Structures are given as structure tokens and as C-alpha cells.
Amino acid sequence: MYLFTEIGSNVKNMKQLEYLVLAKQTKKVINELRQGVIKPYTEVIDVCWGDPHRAGIKPLSFVRQVLAACLYPQLLESDKLLVDVRQRAKRLLEACDGGSVGSYSPTTGIPEISQKVSEFIKKRDGGVPSYPENIYISPGSQWSLANILNVLVNPEASLRTGVLTPVPCHITTITSLMGMGAVVIPYYLNEEQGWTLQVEELQRALESVKGVCNPVALYVINPGNPSGLVQSRKSIQEVIQFVSEKRLFLLADEVYQDCVFGETAEFVSYKKVLAELGPPLSDTVELASFHSASKGFMGECGLRAGYVELVNVDPTVMQYIENLFSTFSGAPTLGQIALEVMTNPPQPGDPSYPLYKKEMQQIRTTLVQNVKRVYEVLNSLPGFSCQPVEGGAFAFPTIHLPPKAIQRAKEAGMEPDTFYCLRLVEEAGLLISPGCEFGQKEATYHIRFCIMTPQDTMVEILKRLSNFHTKFVKEFS
Amino acid sequence: MYLFTEIGSNVKNMKQLEYLVLAKQTKKVINELRQGVIKPYTEVIDVCWGDPHRAGIKPLSFVRQVLAACLYPQLLESDKLLVDVRQRAKRLLEACDGGSVGSYSPTTGIPEISQKVSEFIKKRDGGVPSYPENIYISPGSQWSLANILNVLVNPEASLRTGVLTPVPCHITTITSLMGMGAVVIPYYLNEEQGWTLQVEELQRALESVKGVCNPVALYVINPGNPSGLVQSRKSIQEVIQFVSEKRLFLLADEVYQDCVFGETAEFVSYKKVLAELGPPLSDTVELASFHSASKGFMGECGLRAGYVELVNVDPTVMQYIENLFSTFSGAPTLGQIALEVMTNPPQPGDPSYPLYKKEMQQIRTTLVQNVKRVYEVLNSLPGFSCQPVEGGAFAFPTIHLPPKAIQRAKEAGMEPDTFYCLRLVEEAGLLISPGCEFGQKEATYHIRFCIMTPQDTMVEILKRLSNFHTKFVKEFS
Ligand SMILES: Cc1ncc(COP(=O)(O)O)c(C=O)c1O
Ligand SMILES: Cc1ncc(COP(=O)(O)O)c(C=O)c1O
């Protein structure tokens, strides 16, 4: 009963219940559609999750071909698959025990794949060294993060462990933290300035918990979920200086590193900036950086694999973490293979490169167009205001709700943005998340939706949202 | 640091370190072979794990074809795949959100698959009802078990939570229990009587911890790992009576239910026996039964999926468990698909049935032959004694070690059976597990090895083991 004595008594649980209200309503709507009830739409569009395939983005052919050949090695004989697909699959099968993806993998991942991941990181960071023994592959980055938190959080200490966590924040991290008995120390991203992370705010957040808990770590998400911000090098430098001064462990959730659409935005990793800063910082700041096969343009969420790279972590703590990973069997082999392909895609000259490049460009074009559309449509809609989405998978606009709508929501015992989303799914068949699930400043309201969809889906989403919003505002004004 | 303050100070950690010693030695041996060092063998046979593919058993074609087609739907067009393969893959893809195995699945599993699993259970148990809402799919049964334990174990109670656990026992359960701060209450299976579980022994074990801890559950493994016993209906009835009297939660690890080779042995599920016993038992005994895609003749360990079915569990506790499952994303979709095929294989009349049946029969014949060989060879070897292996994936014979060998091991600070296994891998290239990893009576020694291998591999294993054993006994006599 350990986990839930905690969760039972906290706010987040309440918010999750609100999500359940939405899910229930959606189920009802879908059932009615099935039974032939006439509505202004014929199907519900669900863009609650950062899940491109669910939203209609097609998987990358190269990834799927390699996976299928690994599963069913007869395909290795077929000349329907290009030679680099077959070579890749052969090499990966050799890396699996017994030459089968059906055998258990080592608990921290298949060594050949950790090796490829470390080569990818080194290349990404312009040569900063990366060592496979510091890379732990797991069934997704949620899992990696939970394991690292498990080592950092001491639920038995008289002063509870605290972790600085952004507002707004991707919900599962908060659930993990609370589940472990940690105190979530909120720091607010600055919406007006494009959701930037400001060190004075970190400072304020830290001061505010003096004597209340024992802060041990700072969690950052870059590119942001749901904020959509891509942090600048300067901002990262400041954060590193801050954690170094305050002796905090730095948890860098960088799962959206390949999802950057802003014209001037560029992803720079925490690890790279740390190396650039040189000693003593580069030798001392403890950093965990997370990445995932669920994200990027590949978006293989269902395969469940991610990795964490640890930097400057004390060897005894590394041993603890390794033991923790060893409590369970390794990540699914097929997820690991997807991770290998993600970090080591076809190169110019490879037979699969032209198709791979074409598919990647199509997705990129789609996302750039989507983001542009979202920005234009929402910012032209009275009552909406949306910061530029530079990266990640979500738009997180503010909505200004009419006081009467807020009143009505409160009467129904609901958060106003949940009320809005409930009506939206009912009336327009569009399922998105209310801002209260991610945290927001008092008396501000937001919605979040995934921008990784085909272009026509995004056109339809924005149409439904605009029409609904106009009607909603009218109704409550 | 929560988990490891526990594990750091317990015996099991020491045993795991012994495993590390073995793994290190094996790595050394393999490296030497690669460098051309001449040894009496050319490769190491690793039968430490219950992992049929690693040991050379081939995957089932139907399973792999369906999986490959789900991953790479172009294959659905190919007439190289039989029509039932394509139909199955189509149906399963429709059950995935967005029609892709790359989308996140619901946290307790894809509903259509839970439905199929419950139909399988109902059929297996001769019509005892099974409800999909009581079935939770997860990334493997280790994970399911850890989640259920998490709900049962209260690490903050003044009297620690205890769980009755067999000796010998599959190691990861013990690691999970200890990691959660539970007390492992050992009950000894009766080796002389074929590793049977005796209620008087449960009684003794329970008495022995009076005032020391608060026993809340009984964990049983049937068919046994590593014992190889298949429990009789009568034995199961007695266990159910016992847990009912003592108000214990019953954790039935039934992952080897399809692996039964004994001529007279038959798997009967705890749930079925519970239903047969009728009220009040059938309405009150709280039961969790575990199964896994890793086991059976399919053996897809690398895909990571299993399920737990809950019976008579209090709705509030069910809610806790569901919340716990919801903390992480669902099981890998491909593992779930393997689970669907495992519980819903081709039927007579289906185009894929003939090949499926042939492959299943080949594996069965192999295992029956292996088990017979193991029994005959080991029981004719001086110093060995092996109970019949009726089911599961392992043989767990006793070895009588010469006193001088025991002496030598102790001088080296090692368990005697670890010492034996170390010498075995070094001298004969055979990697197996020492009994001390699973628990055994004082001054008794065992070894464990997987019996799911091709027949010629088993012949080779027994040859290496016999030759080595004869030399080893001579050396130390
Ligand atoms: C910021 C962030 N981190 C981690 C995750 C989890 O990813 P995974 O599927 O690897 O567990 C997500 C998923 O939405 C995310 O948005
Ligand atoms: C008795 C028993 N239970 C559970 C498991 C774990 O299986 P899974 O791969 O589903 O986690 C094993 C694996 O060897 C086992 O032997």
C-alpha cells in the first residue's frame, strides 16, 4: 500500500480523476456514434497523447523493415528488402542471444546497441566522449526516470526529498515523484517570454521550501512538454551553474531532441554544454539525460524502449542504479532495435537512404506546417493566445474563459479547462487535455494537444476547435 | 536510496554477487576462445536461464509471421503468408490505436487482447468464468508480481510484511520482495518426495515468524521453478484451505502451465480448484495468477509481456493495483500480440494449423526426450540424484560434493556449488547455476540448468557435465 498512501492524498490524483471524467465522456460519445446517433462529426479525433501513430503519422519504412526481418528471418532471404535492411537485421540478430529477438536481453540493454547509442551521442555532441557503460537501456524513458528517482529519493528521511519540477510539466513525471514520496517543488516557466526557464525562478522555488524538504535534484524538459520551448545554450549554461552551486542532480529529459521546428531554434544537449563549460563544472555536475524510441519522427511508443546516459555520477550510485535495473529483465528487444535504428539511421549512399530521407522530410514538412497553422489560427481566435511552438510534440495555448463558464465549471465541481474539454469532445468530437493536468498559474487556463498529425487532420482539429470555441464563448457571454 | 538500503544488507545480494563471479569467469573463457586459446570445447553452452531461444529452440512460425505482418503491413498483401496469418494480423492491428503497433497501448493492456486472454482462461478451466476487467497485461510476469507485491507490502508498518516463499525459489521474486522491504518467510519443498509442497511445512514456517513479521501472502510456483514439480489437485486444495484459514493472499505463479512433460502430471490451475471447492472458499480467497509470453513452447522472453488475473480481490485494492499499472505506459504491443497468439493459437482446420501442430509436437518430443535423458544420466552418475522433472523449464538435481571440494570452496570464500559451477564453465564450457542462488537446505548442494534445448545440445550438456563431474570427484577424493 506504499505508493498509494501517497497518491491517495494528493492533488495530482484528483487531476487524474478529471482525466478519467474526460475518458469516460469520450467512450460514451464513441459508443453513441457506433449506435448511429447523429452528431456534427463522424469520429472523435484524439490528440491527448504525444503519440504520432495514434494521430495518423505513418511509421518509417526502414525501421519497420528491419524489425520485421529480425522477427521473421525468412525475410532475410527475400530480395524484396533492400540489402542494407537485410544486413542491419542480420547484424542485430547476431547481437541477440541465441540469434533470436525472443531471448532475454541483458538488464541494461544489448551491448552492441548501447555501443551504437554512445556513438550517436558522441557525434551529436561534436565529439564529447560517451561511454556505453554509462548508458542504460530500459522499457521507455518514464521507466528510466523512475529508476533514477528511486535512487535519489529517500522516503524514510525525516525531511522529505524534493525535486524541482517545471510548471507546466508532463504528467507522468509528477506521478512518479509523488508515488515515491518525494515533494514536487514547482518552478514556473515564463509563458509571456515563450515559456522560458529563468534562474531567478529556480532560486525562488528553492528558497520557498527551506526547512520543508531536502531538494536533491532539478528536472528539466528540453524541448519542452507541454511548453514547446527549445532552450538556448545560454539558458542551459545558467541552469548548469545553478545546479552546481546548489549541488543538485540534473535530470535532463531530452526525449524531444529530434523534434525541433522553430526556424532559429536548435537543440543543444545539456551534456554538450556541460563539456563546453569545462572544469570544474564538467567534472562535477551529476547529469542524467533521457531519450526514447517513442519520440522523434519515428515515434515507436508501443515498442517501449528508451535510454538514460549518466555523467559524473558517483560509482557507488552507478552500482545502485545498475542493481535497480537488474531487478527486472531488460527492455523489449524490438524496442532496443528501434532505438538502434533511431540513433543510427541510413546514411547517404545506403540503398534505403532515399526513401528514408523522403519520409523524414515529409514528416518534417507536415510538422512545420502544422505548427505554423496552429500559431496563426489560435492567435487570431479571440480568447486564445499561443506561444510559438519551437519543438516537442504539443501546443499549449492559453484560453481566456468567460467568467460565466468558470462559474458553471465550479458549480459542477470541475476545473474550468476540464469543463471546456468535456464540452469540446461532446460537441465537436475533439479530445484534448486540459491545462490543469500539467499545472498552471492560478486563474490561468490552457489546453494541450499533439501537433504530430497529418496536415489534413490538423486542419480539421483547428476547424473543430475554432467553431466550438466561438459557440462556447457566445453561450457564456 | 530506498531499494538498496534493503538489498545492500541482505544475503541475496551476496548470492547475486556470486552469480557475477560466474558471469565474469564465463566472459573470460569466451574471450580466451575468441583469441584462439585451445580448450577441450569450442564454445560455451549457457543454460542458466529459462530462455528457450537462447538455448537454441526455434520460435514458432505462426507467432513470428503474425508479428512481422503487424510490424510491416505491406506483408498483408503478400500471398507468401497464409490467409489466417494475414487475418489475425489485420484484426490485431485494428485493435491498436491508429492501426499501428507503434502507438501506446492502454496501461492495463489492449482490451481485445485481455478479452482473448479471458476466453483462454475460461476454456482452460472448463468453463469457470473469467472477466477481462480482472486481467492486467504488463511487460512480463516479474513486473506484474512486483506490482501486486507493492500493494501487499507495507514498508512503513512497525511489523514488517512477510510473504511465504518456497525454497528453492526462482530468484527474481526474492529480489523483488526484499527490494520492497518485505520479509521472505521460507518454506521448504520436500525434495525426497519429489519437491512436494506440504501444508505442515507452511504451518511451521508461519509459526516460526510469530511476532517477527506480519505474513500477508503465500507465493507458490506451479509447475515449479526450479523444482520441476507439477502440483496435484489435492495439494492445491490443501494450500487453498490453508490460505483461507490464515487469511493470506494467494500468489500463484503459473507461468509454466503449458510446460508439463510428466506422463501422469497434469496442470490444474489454482483458480479452477478454487472454483471447484465452492463457497465460501470460492468467494473469499484472494488470488492472483500469473502467466507470461516468455514461457510455454513459444518462449518469447525478449518481447516482454505477461498477465495477471485477479480473483476475489477487494474493489479498492483492485483500484490501487490499476493505478499502479497506470503509473507506466502499457506493455509492449508486440509482446501483447504474442500473448494473444499464445492464448489463442491456430485451430484444426486453420491453414496454419498443420505447421503449428508439427512445430509444437517437435518441441514437446524434444523436451520429453531431454527430461528422460537428464533423469537417466544424472541418476546413474555417482554423487548425483535428480527428482523427476514433471514440468517447468529446469532440472535441479542434488550433487553430493566431496568434503575436500567443500573445504576448498570455503577457503576461497565461495559457496561450494558456486565453486563447482565455476570449475564447470572453466573446464567444460558449460554455464549453469549453483543451487545457492535459489535457496537450499543447509549442507545440501544443487545445480540448475534449463532443459528447453535441442536434443543434441542436451546430449552435449550431459556429456560435458558427466565427464567434468567424474574428474572433479576424483580430484577431490
Ligand atoms: C517529456 C517526456 N518524457 C518522457 C516521456 C515518456 O516516454 P517513454 O515512452 O519513453 O516512456 C514522454 C512521453 O510523452 C514525455 O513527453
Ligand atoms: C517462476 C517464474 N515466474 C516468472 C518469471 C518471469 O517471467 P517474465 O519473463 O514474464 O517476467 C520466470 C522467468 O524465468 C519464472 O521462472
From TrEMBL, chains A, B:
Keywords: Aminotransferase, Pyridoxal phosphate, Transferase. Homodimer. SUPFAM superfamilies: PLP-dependent transferases (SSF53383). Belongs to the class-I pyridoxal-phosphate-dependent aminotransferase family. Alanine aminotransferase subfamily. One of its GO terms (biological process) is L-alanine catabolic process. The keyword NAD does not apply. This is alanine transaminase.
